[in-house]
Structure formats: structure tokens, C-alpha cells
């Protein structure tokens, strides 16, 4: 039970914070009204003049699970914070704030902010009480679910391979994230190979946590201003064939770390997704595949690994539950349908591999889907995507950008690697061009994909990331290396 003195302090703290935040919001409203600029006013608002003690949050903030009226903050502080709360306000909606809570140094904590209005951009700040001194964190922002007919942007990154110095130049990775941040996307989807649990020094829980921790400062560069969605790649080792019934195998250790540090969606009245409990994660859901609506688009993410019994051919599987779930979400009406995953079960390539095994039904000699997946229906994954008019499948794994138009009407896109050397790629060991025998638009690293969704079309752009040590011969930073348009399918009545 709190002492009277403590309660009094808390009230004083809350009152001080309320005054500060009201002043900030007034300035935000005034400035935005004068300039007409809706969001990029943070530098003006965080001059420190009003909130006398404004400082960066002493750690990392990553946003997740945005809905029409909620968002989740994943907070990791380097110092103990006796009391804090997060408060947010938009230009059109009343303020919302979390409950007051304490934050221990080094303990990742999630807190949900509720009572938000949909289709709104919110500024937020954390009000922190350090032993009686109140401090406001630097203001950041986020977007709640867009309404149908809205225009918005989201970003995609792939294969960051942080921790492998050959595949990830950290300066270039930061530049990629900065390029994303400059676009102010509503959210960023990372499609795997971000957490290298298979590095040789990773042996147990503490090393796994180090791996997941090491990405926080990077992903927070975009994640404090818009949600991040994670998808498992092969290097995350959340592989079904590693499960041994104990909690000492890598698949479970890695899953626990992901759940602790990165809040991904779990099924509720906004998200659909993995609902089958994993017995070794009591009280948790696996948060490894999920779907949601945003504006006119349906987003569907898949996990290629947790339900696979081996890393090849027919042993790679979504598993019956995920496969059945995919069939249940794709028929929903949407102007655009996007599917995201790391790679097909048959390793590298785009349309070249879409015909095989669980994805396309062909075995090495003949069509085998109904024989190999009895009771799963007549259609493998690709045919289900075609039947439901999926527009684009985004994958990673091959460390280059490829855009291919499948004759069945789906665009298959391999997302570029975020941070590889653009000058050392061609012809080197990281050049997987030869896997793409069917051709298409093929470009080397590094950078991200930016997708602008409008009521009439989605425009997908590959944006180069370059740093000072890169030559100019393979493009410049921020260059639109490729761009294509996906017309909206008029699925609504
Ligand atoms: Fe990779």
C-alpha cells in the first residue's frame, strides 16, 4: 500500500506533468496551425523551453501492435525510473495516457496506451520521475490505423544480419534506417535475418538475449516513431526441428527473447494470427504470424520455420494451423493484399521456386501436393494467393532486390539487403543473381523498400542507402533505384 506522502508526491508529479504536456500540446497545435505542417515539428517542440527538463529517453523505445485505438510501447531503460507514464495527444483527439508504472534498469517492459482515436497521428512523451525530479522525454509520434481511402507509407527492411561484419556495415544500416525515418512511414516490416542466433558464440540464454538486445538501438531509430513488425528468418533459428520438448533448445530460447524485446501482434479484435499455444511458453502466444487491415490494404505475415520438421523440400511447412489460417484471412475484401515472409522452403529464388513443394505443389518429378498434404485441400500456397488476388509477395533471404511478374498475376519481390557493400557485391560470394534464372528487375544492395499506398495504386520504391565510403558508381544515397505501381483491384462492390 502506498504511504500518504508517496501518494501526495505522485499527485504532484502528475499535476506537473499535466501542465507540461498541455503546454507542449498547445505549442504543437499552434505551430501546426501556422505552418500547415502536420507532423515534422518535433525539433520546434522539443527546444526545452517549455518542458524545462527534456531529454532523450534513457534507453530504447520500440512501438508495436498499433490498432485503431491502442499502441504498445516496448521500453528498455538503462537506469531505474521510480515512476513514469506515457502520454499522447493528436490535433484532433483528446489526450490519452498510460497508467503510472516503474521501470527497472535493463528490464524490457511493455505498456499499452489505450483510448486513442483511429486514423490519427499522435505525439507522445514519457514523463519520468527520477527521485522527485520530473523529466519529459523527447517527443516522438505514431499513427493509428488508417481509414479506408487513406494514403500512407510503410517500409520494408530485410536481412540486416547485424553482428556479421561482412554482411552488415553498421553505418550503412543506420543510414538505411535514417532514410526510412525521413519518410515517416506508419510502420516498418522487417522480414527476417535480423537476429543471428546461429553465430558461433551464441550458446545459451544470455548470448541469445545479447543478440536480441543488440538490435534495439537500431530498430528504435524507426521504432520510436512508428511500429515495427518482425518476421522470422532462417538465422533466427526458431525452427520446428530444433524443438525437443525442453526449454533448453535454441528455438525456445530465441522465441523467449523475441517475445521479451519485440512486441509483435497476437490475435484480438484487430489482429488475426497465431493462436496455438506453445506448451513451453506458459501464458504466452508465439506472435510469429499475423494479419491486419490498414487503410485499404490487407497485410499478411508468415512464419516459414516454426512448424517445419527439417530445412528442405516438403519438410518445410507452414504447418496445418498456419496454412488453414492463411486460407481464412486472404478472402477478406481489401483494395490491396500484401504477403510477407522470409523465403520459400526450397531456398533461393523468386518465381523460379514458387511452383514447388508446399508453396506450389510440384515435387521433384511430379505434382504431389494432395499426396504430401492430405486433408489440406486441393491448392498449395501460391494457388491460394492467386485465387484470392494477392497483389505482392515480399520476401527476403537472397540479399538483393528482385521484382518479378508471375504469369499468374502475382508480383514476387525479393527485398534488398539493408547494409551490404554496394561496391563489393557484384560477382562476390553474396551475389545470388544466378539463382534468378527467370530474370526480372535485379539490383544489388543496399537499402530498403518504401511502399506508398494511395486510394488508386500502391507505389513500391527501392531506395538506395549509401555512406561516405561508398563509390558513386553504384548509385547515391536516397536514389530511387527502381519503382513500380500496383493498381488497386476494385474488390469492393
Ligand atoms: Fe539473410
Please provide a written account of the structure:
The protein is α+β, with helices and mostly antiparallel strands. It has 2 domains: 4-143, Immunoglobulin-like, CATH 2.60.40.10; 152-487, 4-Layer Sandwich (Purple Acid Phosphatase, chain A, domain 2), CATH 3.60.21.70. Helices cover 22% and strands 25% of the residues. It has helices at residues 4-35, 42-45, 170-183, 205-214, 216-223, 250-261, 319-329, 357-360, 369-372, 381-387; strands spanning 54-55, 59-64, 71-77, 81-89, 96-97, 101-103, 109-113, 121-130, 133-137, 140-143, 152-157, 187-190, 227-230, 272-273, 290-294, 297-301, 336-340, 392-395, 401-405, 411-414, 441-443, 447-453, 457-464, 480-487. The strands form 4 sheets. The protein has an 8-stranded mixed beta sheet, with helices on one face. Strands 1, 4, 5, 6, 8, 9 and 10 form a 7-stranded mixed beta sheet that branches. Strands 13-12-11-22-23-24 form a 6-stranded mixed beta sheet, with helices on one face. The relative contact order is 0.10. The model is unreliable at 1-7 and 13-50 (pLDDT under 50). It binds fe (ii) ion. Fe (ii) ion (FE2) is lined by residues 159, 161, 193, 233, 397, 399. Residues 159, 161, 193, 233, 397, 399 line the site of fe (ii) ion.
Amino acid at each position: 500500500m502506498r504511504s500518504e506522502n508517496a501518494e501526495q508526491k505522485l499527485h504532484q508529479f502528475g499535476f506537473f506533468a499535466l501542465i507540461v504536456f498541455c503546454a507542449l500540446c498547445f505549442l504543437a497545435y499552434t505551430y501546426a496551425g501556422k505552418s500547415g505542417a502536420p507532423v515534422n515539428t518535433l525539433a520546434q517542440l522539443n527546444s526545452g523551453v517549455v518542458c524545462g527538463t527534456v531529454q532523450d529517453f534513457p534507453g530504447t523505445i520500440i512501438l508495436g501492435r498499433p490498432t485503431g485505438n491502442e499502441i504498445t510501447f516496448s521500453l528498455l531503460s538503462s537506469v531505474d525510473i521510480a515512476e513514469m507514464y506515457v502520454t499522447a495527444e493528436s490535433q484532433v483527439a483528446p489526450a490519452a495516457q498510460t497508467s503510472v508504472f516503474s521501470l527497472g534498469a535493463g528490464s524490457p517492459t511493455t505498456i499499452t496506451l489505450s483510448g486513442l482515436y483511429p486514423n490519427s497521428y499522435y505525439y507522445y512523451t514519457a514523463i519520468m520521475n527520477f527521485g522527485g525530479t520530473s523529466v519529459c522525454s523527447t517527443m516522438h509520434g505514431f499513427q493509428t490505423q488508417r481509414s479506408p481511402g487513406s494514403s500512407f507509407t510503410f517500409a520494408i527492411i530485410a536481412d540486416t544480419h547485424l553482428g556479421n561484419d561482412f554482411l552488415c556495415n553498421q553505418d550503412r544500416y543506420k543510414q538505411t534506417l535514417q532514410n526510412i525515418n525521413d519518410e515517416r512511414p506508419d510502420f516498418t516490416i522487417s522480414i527476417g535475418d535480423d537476429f543471428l542466433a546461429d553465430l558461433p558464440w551464441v550458446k545459451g540464454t544470455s548470448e541469445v538475449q545479447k543478440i536480441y538486445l543488440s538490435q534495439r538501438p537500431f530498430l528504435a531509430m524507426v521504432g520510436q516513431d512508428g511500429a515495427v513488425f518482425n518476421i522470422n528468418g532462417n538465422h533466427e533459428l526458431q525452427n520446428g526441428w530444433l524443438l525437443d520438448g525442453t526449454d533448453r533448445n535454441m528455438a525456445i530460447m530465441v522465441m523467449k527473447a523475441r517475445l521479451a524485446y519485440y512486441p509483435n501482434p497476437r490475435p484480438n479484435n484487430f489482429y488475426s494470427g497465431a493462436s496455438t499455444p506453445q506448451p513451453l511458453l506458459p501464458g504466452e502466444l508465439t506472435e510469429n504470424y499475423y494479419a491486419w487491415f490498414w487503410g485499404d490494404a490487407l497485410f499478411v505475415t508468415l512464419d516459414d520455420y516454426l512448424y517445419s520438421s527439417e530445412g528442405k523440400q516438403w519438410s518445410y511447412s507452414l504447418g496445418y494451423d498456419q496454412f488453414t489460417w492463411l486460407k481464412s484471412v486472404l478472402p477478406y475484401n481489401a483494395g490491396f493484399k500484401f504477403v510477407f515472409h522470409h523465403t520459400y522452403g526450397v531456398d533461393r529464388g523468386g518465381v523460379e521456386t514458387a511452383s514447388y513443394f508446399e508453396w506450389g505443389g510440384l515435387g521433384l518429378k511430379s505434382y504431389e501436393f494432395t499426396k504430401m498434404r492430405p486433408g489440406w485441400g486441393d491448392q498449395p500456397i501460391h494457388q491460394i494467393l492467386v485465387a484470392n488476388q494477392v497483389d505482392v509477395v515480399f520476401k527476403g533471404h537472397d540479399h538483393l532486390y528482385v521484382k518479378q511478374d508471375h504469369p499468374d498475376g502475382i508480383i514476387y519481390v525479393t527485398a534488398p539487403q539493408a547494409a551490404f557493400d554496394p561496391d563489393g557485391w557484384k560477382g562476390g560470394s553474396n551475389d545470388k543473381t544466378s539463382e534468378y534464372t527467370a530474370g526480372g528487375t535485379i539490383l544489388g544492395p543496399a537499402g530498403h523498400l518504401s511502399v506508398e499506398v494511395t486510394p488508386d495504386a500502391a507505389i513500391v520504391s527501392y531506395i538506395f542507402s549509401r555512406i561516405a565510403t561508398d563509390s558513386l558508381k553504384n548509385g547515391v544515397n536516397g536514389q530511387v533505384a527502381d519503382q513500380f505501381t500496383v493498381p488497386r483491384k476494385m474488390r469492393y462492390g
